[in-house]
Amino acid sequence: MPPASDEPLYAQLTSMLRDRIAGMRPGEKIWSEPSLARELGVSRFTVARAIEQLARDGLVVRRQGSGTYVADQVMRQMPSVLLGFAEAVAASGQHSSQELRSFAPVRWRPDYPYPESEGLFLLDRLRLVNGRRMAWHRSVLSQTIVRETGLDEAVLSDPGFSLYSHLERHGHRAETAEESFHARLATAEEAALLDLPQPAAVIGVRRVTRDAAGAVIDFVEALYDARAYNYRADLRRGAQSALVNFSKGVSDVLQNNLRR
Questions:
Q1: Half-sphere exposure at residue 69, Cβ-oriented, CA atoms within 13 angstroms
Q2: I want to staple 209 with a disulfide (CB 3.0 to 4.6 A). Which of 86, 118, 176, 177 is the partner?
């Protein structure tokens, strides 16, 4: 066990197991409670509390009669790397799909990164990983982009559809993006859509994506199951790639400039 600390013993054990699990593959079986208790010289009750905390954090899943396994960490986001949802999921070795909720014209809002005169469409869809709902994406696209790329419900009904790939095939490659995100509790509607227990934490993301000429090709407001969203950053003194703002003293918003 770690050196003596003011933290409860189960909390120390949770931190230790969290570090061990970080080096394991999704789906890999972890150690049994009796073996951990023997190895670390602690009670099974302490081990059980630690593993229960890992399960609540979404790091492991328990399967009755089988054991405990490393959970899928499907969304691994890295600052300065611009990836679409399908690309990020594929990079973690998982399979992505989507459920189209609607695709229709939408009224302009002052916080949209488009001129008021621009006709707009809202692409509303749920994003799945290995068949499980993980995110709710609401993308706002210009009428020009929709027309030039041939976007319609027939195209969007493909479960394997990737917006970034579709745009790139039609001459609108995503080159840069500005992204911000914050954590909060899910509403009842959001929890129902993402099959979340309540209360549940979600990660809200807003991203403006631009092409090489600086034109906006996608604006998305997305919501992720926080248990499956892993954010990794390589930080250096003097770097100005990320700014942390404290929004009205309530939630932290991290902003990043992303590039292909």
A1: 12
A2: 177
Residues 153 and 186 in one domain: yes
Which residue bears the tokens 């914050």?
182
Residue matched to tokens 């009750």: 45
Structure tokens at 93: 């070795």
Q: Provide the pairing of β-strand 120-129 with 132-142.
A: antiparallel
Q: Does one domain contain both 126 and 162? A: yes
pTM given for the model: 0.67
- In order along its 260 residues, the chain shows pLDDT tens digits of 555 566 788 888 988 888 888 778 778 899 999 999 999 999 999 999 999 888 877 778 888 888 899 876 555 555 556 778 887 777 666 788 999 999 999 999 999 999 999 999 999 999 998 788 889 999 999 999 999 999 999 999 999 999 999 999 999 999 999 989 899 999 999 999 998 888 889 999 999 999 999 999 999 999 998 877 766 666 666 645 444 443 433 444 455 665 66
User: Which residue, 198, 103, 202, 221, is CA-closest to 153?
Assistant: 103
Q: Answer yes or no: do 98 and 43 share one domain.
A: no
Range of the domain at 50: 9-70
CB 204 within 8 A of CB 184: yes
- Give the distance from CA 111 to its chain's centroid: 22
Residues 81, 58 share a domain: no
Last residue of a domain, one of 70, 94, 116: 70
146 shares its domain with 188:
yes
Output the CA–CA distances (angstroms, integers) from residue 54 to 22, 175, 237, in the order listed: 12, 37, 32
Q: Rounded to an integer, what distance in angstroms lies between the CA atom of residue 61 and that of residue 59?
A: 7
Spatial separation of the C-alpha atoms in residues 26 and 166, rounded to whole Å:
29
